[in-house]
């Protein structure tokens, strides 16, 4: 829907029309005029209202854009694969440590008079006296 700057607006006398503007009022006559207008940068709109606005790079061609997206996708897939392998390796090491711990516990022989964790027998104290 085409809109025009109202002649009383400060931006009207600039000699050019800004690409992006924010207005407060619409005046409907034979034409639609915007009043209380201010010029804004497109990055501001994308930053403050990302759910409504996005900035497209117009200086890149469609092929370059697709190539860039493909490169980003492959980089992301490689990163995910690397992370998955690291997680598998950590899981494998954890299982191996748990297995070694269990086998070590199973190999220990329980002997009377032998303290847990030591290799010497407990000797009964020598009786002194008669």
Automatic annotation (TrEMBL):
InterPro entries in alphabetical order: DEAD-box_helicase_OB_fold (IPR011709)
An MF annotation (GO) of this entry: helicase activity
Keywords annotated in UniProt: ATP-binding, Helicase, Hydrolase, Nucleotide-binding
Region (Disordered): 59-130
Domain (DEAD-box helicase OB fold) ranges: 2-50
Biased composition (Basic and acidic residues): 59-103
Protein name per UniProt: DEAD-box helicase OB fold domain-containing protein
Organism expressing this protein natively: Nepenthes gracilis (Slender pitcher plant)
């Amino acid at each position: 829907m085409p809109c025009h700057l109202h002649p009383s607006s400060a931006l009207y006398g600039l000699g050019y029309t800004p690409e992006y503007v924010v207005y407060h009022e619409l005046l409907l006559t034979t034409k639609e005029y915007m009043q209380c207008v201010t010029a804004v940068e497109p990055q501001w709109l994308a930053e403050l209202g990302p759910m409504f606005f996005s900035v497209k790079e117009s200086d890149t061609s469609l092929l370059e854009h697709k190539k860039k997206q493909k490169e980003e996708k492959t980089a992301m897939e490689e990163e995910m694969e690397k992370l998955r392998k690291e997680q598998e390796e950590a899981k494998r090491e954890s299982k191996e440590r748990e297995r070694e711990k269990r086998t070590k516990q199973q190999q220990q022989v329980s002997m009377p008079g032998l303290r847990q964790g030591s290799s010497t027998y407990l000797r009964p104290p020598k009786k002194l006296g008669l």
